[in-house]
């Protein structure tokens, strides 16, 4: 398994390089560059704009800029944010931490509630309950987070005053975990609700399928009750597709939290990425995107490795 | 026994606990919260042109002068405003002698003096720093400091824009002792600055807020509250905060939030002074638009009031000149083109643009009267304006195609000349620099005699003579329909009824925050 992981990791290097080149070139496509962000201002002089391009090395040929960027990146220097005037690594990692709190919370909500709902749907024999649970999951999947987030804020934030209006913590207060969780609850539930819907259907479908298998029939014949059949025999098998989905969703959870971040004023990576794109802060954009690329590759690898743990039949060759 | 001791202790302690709670809340930090739709990139002045960055910096730093509510220059770090009358400005307008206050301290306790002003000039004009706008600082020949509290600024030529620059555009004086010899673009100062302002920097949480504390030693008087927090909140987050009454002020809201804000209890929407306006750039060198009749027809065919009443919610005013009425040099006697589709149609007929094939679009010599409108993507009100214009112009037989691009692509696309019409806004300084005409000139306006009027402005000491030249220029532009002004562009702030003393000026919405009180 170790050699398999090592080979997969080495194999990813050319892919990462290719993606970095494509991303770098894509950024060069639209007209204008980082210094042009200033150019619409009446006070900015064209000479000053050109000077800034020179200072930031933007007047050099693109391949030279890319190679410089790559060389620096390999040495651990992620570049310098044009906008914030501090290392892009600091800017991005600061926000990554915030986003991980949000997506971690959402993941937890999605996983716990999704599994519970999926198992409940599979366990019940009453058609009306089944239908209601399924309707709930379809609703969760189809309602966009900007809408559900706004409703949650309006009702629980404005009407009831139960949740804060946004941000990660009470301003002026030192960091405390209860305060963070208080701010995290609503956005995590809103973001997680999308996954509750999806994952509960996966669990449900996986369980229904497993319940028709021979080994379950055997277990039933041996007199085990339905709860034990579901959890001990069917669930481990139904968990395998869930692991795949989870692995594939992980990067999207980090990048896709943007809408929730905007609604709840959460200072996360998604918001940083959009703002940096609009502000043409290339070093920050590249740093954030490369981080996501690495995340996708790592998540894929972990998914494959998780198979081995969940399914003893899987061998790595 | 044990129980009764506990009971006794509790009964004795309870009043103490309650008293502590009451006293604690009475002594709690009083705070003013300001919502801002954008976050400053850096707090080191002069590196960022964003208006909202300027607003935040205004709390921490000071300018030599400020612009008061009624547009007059007032002394700030300077002890008085130099004029020709008081001997502060030489008769030829080349030398400014500025006496500084001698009671101004930086937040770290050091005294501000003339060396800081000289250092600020050096920083702004340092070719190795990414300073996008150097204003008139670039034109200064020398600054002398005969004593620690006197600054003599010498220009090679007459310069009338110095007070304007030193009061609003790029005016913040920075501390020499904290910055000299440092690698400025990478210095921690950028995110933890030391200023002379009414508020000291405390904390900046990226993407969330900047927290400042009152400077009890502020030369203009200590603020009446302990803290000022600038929270970065997009439209949605700002709405929630306002509904909960969590903020005293929301800066620069968009038109999309106007009606919502007007419906809020305990808040009012107010306009902050700003010389900005919305307009359609017309590429005067375009194959179709070189024809003045077409430019005039476009202007006649645009119902400006329809747009201001609908998209701008009635808070903006239609505009005919290329400077708004708030500006002292605004001309109110330019040729106006009232909305008149028939006049537009007959202008086009006379110029030979007719709809021979009956498809609703005019043509001339085989060329269709079809134009492209360049627009910046991502803002609902921008798109609505352009779409209304498109409908109105279709009525007079002009076809328009909308092309949307991102903000950073706008300037290079415009300067390449590859556009016909473009929608956007522009702002002019209190002492105008005419970047629109003498700098970018994206409209390719080529009337040199008219442009010479503007070129002469910066060396005309007499203000009324400057105003007359600028007004003559506005009349020429309107006569030629070389630009299509649409309306004023109001800066909208949402102000809490609890907030007293809020008096925005051209120096910003927060420049007098130390005079605010909160009920």
Structure description:
The complex is a heterodimer of chains A (317) and B (519). Chain A has 317 residues and is an all-alpha fold. In chain A, 74% of the residues lie in helices and 0% in strands. Chain A is built from twelve helices and no strands. Chain A starts with a helix and ends in a 7-residue tail after the last helix. In chain B, 29% of the residues lie in helices and 20% in strands. Chain B is built from 15 helices and 21 strands. Chain B has a seven-stranded mixed beta sheet. In chain B, strands 16-15-17-12-18 form a five-stranded mixed beta sheet. In chain B, strands 4-6-5 form a three-stranded antiparallel beta sheet, with helices on one face. The longest helix of chain B is centred in the N-terminal third of the chain and has 25 residues. Chain B is globular, with a radius of gyration of 27 Å. The two termini of chain B are 51 Å apart. At the A-B interface, helix 2, helix 4, helix 6 and helix 11 of A face strand 9, helix 6, helix 12, strand 17 and helix 13 of B.
């Amino acid at each position: 398994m170790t050699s398999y992981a090592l080979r997969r990791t080495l194999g990813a290097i050319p892919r990462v390089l290719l993606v970095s080149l494509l991303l770098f070139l894509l950024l060069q496509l639209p007209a204008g560059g980082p210094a042009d962000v200033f150019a619409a201002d009446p006070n900015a002089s064209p000479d000053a704009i050109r000077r800034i391009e020179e200072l930031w090395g933007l007047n050099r040929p693109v391949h030279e800029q890319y190679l410089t960027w790559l060389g620096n990146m390999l040495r651990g220097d992620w570049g310098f944010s044009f906008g914030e005037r501090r290392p892009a690594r600091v800017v991005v990692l600061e926000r990554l931490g915030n986003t991980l709190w949000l997506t971690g919370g959402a993941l937890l909500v999605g996983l716990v509630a999704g599994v519970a709902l999926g198992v409940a749907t599979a366990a019940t024999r009453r058609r009306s309950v089944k239908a209601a649970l399924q309707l709930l999951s379809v609703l969760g999947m189809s309602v966009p987070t900007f809408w559900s987030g706004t409703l949650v804020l309006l009702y629980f934030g404005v009407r009831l005053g139960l949740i804060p209006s946004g941000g990660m913590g009470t301003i002026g207060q030192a960091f405390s975990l209860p305060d963070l969780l208080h701010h995290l609850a609503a956005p995590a539930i809103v973001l997680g609700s999308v996954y509750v819907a999806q994952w509960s259907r996966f669990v449900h479908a996986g369980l229904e399928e497993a319940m028709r298998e021979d080994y379950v029939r055997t277990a039933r014949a041996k007199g085990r009750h339905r709860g034990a059949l579901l959890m001990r025999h069917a669930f481990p098998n139904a968990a395998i597709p869930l692991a795949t989905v989870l692995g594939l969703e992980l990067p999207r959870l980090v990048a896709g939290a943007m809408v929730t971040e905007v609604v709840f004023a959460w200072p996360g990576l998604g918001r940083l990425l959009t703002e940096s794109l609009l502000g043409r802060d290339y070093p920050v954009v590249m740093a954030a995107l490369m981080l996501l690329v690495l995340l996708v590759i790592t998540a894929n690898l972990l998914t494959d490795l998780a198979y081995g743990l969940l399914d003893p039949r899987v061998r790595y060759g | 026994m044990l129980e009764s001791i506990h009971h006794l202790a509790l009964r004795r302690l309870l009043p103490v606990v309650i008293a502590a709670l009451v006293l604690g809340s009475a002594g709690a930090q009083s705070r003013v919260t300001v919502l801002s739709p954008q976050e400053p990139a850096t707090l080191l002045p002069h590196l960022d042109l964003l208006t909202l960055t300027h607003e935040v910096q205004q709390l921490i730093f000071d300018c030599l002068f400020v612009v008061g509510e009624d547009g007059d220059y007032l002394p700030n770090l300077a002890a008085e405003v130099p004029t020709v009358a008081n001997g502060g400005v030489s008769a030829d307008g080349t030398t400014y002698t500025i006496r500084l206050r001698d009671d101004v301290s930086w937040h770290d306790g050091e005294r501000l003096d003339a060396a800081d002003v000289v250092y600020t000039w050096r920083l702004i004009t340092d070719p190795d720093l990414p300073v996008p706008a150097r204003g008139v600082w670039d034109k200064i020949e020398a600054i002398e400091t005969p004593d620690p509290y006197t600054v003599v600024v010498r220009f090679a030529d007459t310069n009338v824009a110095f007070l304007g620059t030193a009061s609003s555009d790029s005016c913040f004086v920075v501390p020499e002792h904290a910055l000299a010899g440092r690698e400025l673009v990478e210095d921690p100062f950028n995110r933890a600055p030391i200023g002379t302002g009414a508020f000291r920097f405390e904390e900046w949480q990226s993407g969330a807020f900047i927290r400042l504390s009152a400077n009890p030693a502020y030369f203009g008087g200590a603020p009446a509250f302990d803290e000022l927090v600038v929270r970065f909140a997009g439209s949605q987050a700002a709405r929630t905060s306002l509904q909960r009454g969590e903020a005293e002020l929301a800066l620069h809201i968009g038109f999309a939030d106007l009606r919502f804000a007007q419906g809020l209890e305990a808040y009012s929407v107010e306009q902050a002074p700003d010389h900005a306006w919305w307009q359609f750039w017309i590429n005067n060198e375009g194959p179709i638009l070189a024809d003045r009749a077409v430019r005039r027809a476009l202007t006649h065919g645009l119902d400006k009031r329809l747009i201001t009443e609908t998209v701008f919610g009635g808070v903006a005013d239609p505009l005919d000149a290329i400077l708004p009425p708030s500006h002292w040099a605004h001309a109110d006697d330019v040729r106006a083109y009232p909305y008149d589709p028939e006049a537009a149609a007959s202008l086009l007929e006379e110029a030979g643009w007719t709809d021979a094939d009956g498809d609703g679009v005019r043509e001339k010599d085989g060329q269709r009267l079809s134009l492209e409108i360049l627009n910046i993507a991502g803002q609902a009100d921008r798109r609505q304006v352009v779409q209304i214009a498109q409908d109105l112009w279709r009525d007079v037989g002009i076809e328009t195609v909308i092309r949307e691009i991102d903000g950073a692509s706008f300037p290079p696309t415009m300067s390449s000349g590859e556009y016909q019409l473009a929608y956007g806004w522009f702002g002019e300084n209190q002492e105008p620099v005419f970047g629109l005409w003498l700098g970018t000139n994206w409209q390719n306006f080529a009337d040199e005699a008219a442009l010479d009027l503007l070129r002469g402005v910066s060396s005309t000491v007499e203000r009324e003579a400057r105003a007359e030249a600028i007004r003559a220029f506005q009349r020429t532009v309107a006569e030629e329909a070389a630009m299509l002004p649409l309306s004023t562009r109001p800066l909208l702030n949402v102000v809490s009824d609890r907030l007293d003393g809020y008096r925005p000026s051209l120096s910003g919405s927060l420049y007098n925050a130390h005079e605010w009180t909160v009920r």
